[in-house]
């Protein structure tokens, strides 16, 4: 027992010296666990090294020689500890393992996630989807009967897996550009087929969020039960009728756990299957996760409702956004005006019975979405039929603004120019606008891109063409073939346009979306060319140009005078960016350390091989002893270069 305590004391005392020395020699910081192990290794090898090199005291040679041997053995022992630190960094990089306190804290969560992961796997296998996970079968390559069976199995598996996967199915049902159309159609049945949570649990959520309920009356049966929330009809104290959207009890923790499983499945499918890699499932899973987290915060939806309602696209009054009661809204509760109507997906019969103009309703809805995209910059990113109502007064109500896309002014301007180019049939202008919308590489064949855009316009935007998933698939194919990148907000625009096509098809199957796009573009151009709009634009442009025009003559005069006297020069600042300087400095340090290490190693070999010189012992000369020390210096420099390679950012960790 006493020996063990003495050993621990020795390790602790030696760490006081070893820790700063090792971190100074290698140039990076290490965690205490690794440093303690390295210290123990250093102490453990010191005595065997001393015995092997100099023997044990009493020594038969001079005190100076004994000191040299002690220094040499100490350096070799420290070198052993440094080798351990570098090998540990190479094999298990700092930060790759969780901290001990994180392990204790997350152990329960990890066990729950593992149990849930196995539960989902069992559901998937039981529903016959195992071959798709292993890559033996690929969606879209089955015959009609097999594809129908796949669609049904996938819907049942998602429904059984719970609310997060139901929401995933809802999102996939709008992505017929990614999955087969028959599968998307089957998944659309998941829109409202969710078992509601008990009223007692929902009332507890309302009490936690609002305190004393501000409603004179509230129905205990939900008007609708969705995957994330349930909607109830209520009456305020002043008699106003409202709907209350309440987050499902305990849904936040369930969703966060299931999102981790969705990301794991996506990575597994992308790694093991060709169809997973071609679809980019990891990126889709990350986008879905971000959207779900945003949807769980009802304050985001409340802000979206205010932004959309304030936009010019709904100012005409043909499309209505419910009034928001902010004083009764929290992160988990949303109170809004009740709109009387029927879901747009089931409104075709009612439109005919009431003698409404189906094409007019479709035009109003489509122009509203285009206006939100091209003018307001805030648009409904999930315009499926369940998110719209045909109101009793013939207008369209817009619901569920938890998923909203936002565009900056430059992107909106580029989209407007793209619409105008499409209207004029100008592939060159359309290409220029497209290049301002997407991320472009450093080198691009613009002529080939213009030809591809021209062929795209001839194929999909000619007479009789229809807006649909095939059109957007071809557009994405062009973007991919030319190494262009689509920003997430622009991808949301394309998805919204593809989704609205199916929504409008429910009420007006023959509606010409391409023609409506061109009509909207022409009308928007006319608005921009109106006298008031031109005067406003000219005033804005002149206000931004005047300061530059005022300084321009003086600058031209200075340039001309400098050119006339031969003093015209151009200054270029190399390495002006701090990141470039830091990168170059790091590279130079590594090169210098490598040169110094190689030089020390070469000198060490030469000195060790020299037989002459003063003798320290009968077997070792002074030159050889110096060579051994230089060899240690060489090893330390090489280890420092290696640790810089293994950990270039120098994070601090265990």
TrEMBL record:
Keyword Iron: no
Annotated TM spans: 6-26, 33-54, 66-92, 591-610, 622-646
Record-level Gene Ontology MF annotations: kinase activity
Domain ABC1 atypical kinase-like: 189-426
Keywords, sorted A to Z: Kinase, Membrane, Transferase, Transmembrane, Transmembrane helix
One of the Pfam families matching this protein, by short name: ABC1
Protein name: ABC1 kinase family protein
């Amino acid at each position: 027992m006493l020996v063990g305590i003495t050993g621990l004391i020795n390790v602790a005392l030696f760490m006081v010296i070893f820790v700063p020395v090792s971190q100074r020699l290698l140039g990076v910081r290490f965690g205490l666990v690794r440093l303690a192990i390295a210290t123990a290794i250093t102490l453990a090898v010191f005595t065997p090294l001393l015995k092997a090199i100099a023997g044990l005291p009493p020594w038969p040679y001079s005190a100076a020689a004994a000191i040299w041997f002690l220094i040499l053995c100490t350096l070799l022992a420290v070198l052993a500890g440094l080798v351990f630190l570098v090998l540990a960094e190479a094999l298990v990089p700092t930060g790759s393992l969780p901290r001990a306190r994180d392990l204790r804290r997350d152990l329960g969560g990890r066990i729950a996630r593992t149990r849930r992961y196995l539960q989902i796997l069992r559901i998937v296998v039981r529903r016959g989807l195992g071959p798709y996970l292993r890559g033996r079968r690929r969606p879209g390559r089955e015959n009609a009967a097999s594809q129908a069976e796949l669609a049904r199995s996938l819907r049942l598996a998602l429904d059984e897996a719970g609310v997060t996967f139901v929401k995933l199915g809802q999102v996939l049902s709008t992505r017929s550009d990614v999955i087969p159309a028959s599968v998307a159609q089957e998944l659309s049945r998941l829109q409202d087929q969710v078992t509601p949570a008990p009223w007692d649990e929902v009332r507890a959520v309302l009490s936690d969020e609002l305190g004393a309920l501000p409603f004179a009356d509230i129905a205990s049966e939900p008007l609708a039960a969705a995957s994330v929330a349930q909607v109830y009809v209520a009456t305020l104290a002043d008699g106003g009728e409202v709907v209350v959207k309440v987050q499902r009890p305990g849904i936040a923790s369930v969703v966060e756990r299931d999102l981790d499983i969705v990301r794991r499945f996506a990575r597994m499918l992308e790694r093991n299957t060709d169809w997973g890699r071609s679809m980019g499932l990891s990126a889709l899973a990350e986008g879905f996760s971000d959207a779900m987290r945003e949807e769980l915060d009802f304050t985001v939806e409340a802000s979206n409702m205010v932004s959309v309602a304030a936009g010019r696209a709904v100012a005409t009054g043909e499309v209505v956004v419910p009034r928001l009661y902010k004083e009764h809204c929290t992160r988990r509760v949303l109170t809004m005006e009740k709109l009387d109507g029927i879901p747009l997906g089931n409104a075709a019969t009612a439109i005919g019975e009431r003698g409404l103009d189906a094409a007019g309703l479709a035009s109003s809805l489509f122009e509203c979405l285009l206006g939100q995209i091209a003018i307001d910059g805030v648009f409904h990113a999930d315009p499926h039929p369940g998110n719209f109502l045909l109101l009793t007064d013939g207008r369209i109500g817009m619901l569920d603004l938890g998923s909203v896309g936002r565009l900056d002014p430059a992107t909106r301007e580029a989209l407007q120019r793209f619409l105008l180019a499409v209207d004029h049939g100008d592939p060159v202008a359309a290409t220029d606008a497209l290049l301002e919308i997407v991320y472009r590489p450093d080198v691009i064949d613009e002529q080939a891109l213009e030809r591809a855009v021209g062929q795209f316009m001839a194929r999909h935007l000619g007479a009789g063409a229809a807006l649909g998933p095939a059109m957007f698939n071809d557009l994405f194919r062009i973007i991919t073939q030319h190494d262009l990148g689509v920003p997430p907000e622009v991808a949301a625009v394309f998805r919204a346009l593809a989704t609205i096509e199916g929504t409008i098809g429910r009420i007006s199957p023959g509606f010409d979306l391409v023609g409506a796009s061109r009509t909207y573009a022409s009308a928007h151009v006319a608005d921009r060319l109106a006298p008031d709009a031109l005067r406003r634009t000219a005033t804005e442009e002149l206000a931004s140009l005047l300061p530059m025009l005022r300084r321009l003559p003086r600058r031209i005069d200075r340039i001309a005078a400098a050119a006339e006297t031969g003093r015209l020069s151009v200054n270029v600042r190399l390495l002006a960016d701090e990141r470039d300087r830091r990168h170059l400095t790091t590279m130079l340090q590594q090169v210098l350390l490598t040169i110094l290490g190689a030089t020390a190693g070469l000198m060490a070999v030469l000195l060790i091989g020299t037989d002459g010189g003063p003798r320290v012992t009968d077997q070792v000369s002074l030159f050889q002893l110096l060579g051994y020390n230089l060899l240690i210096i060489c090893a330390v420099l090489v280890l420092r270069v290696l640790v810089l390679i293994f950990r270039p950012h120098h994070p601090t960790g265990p």
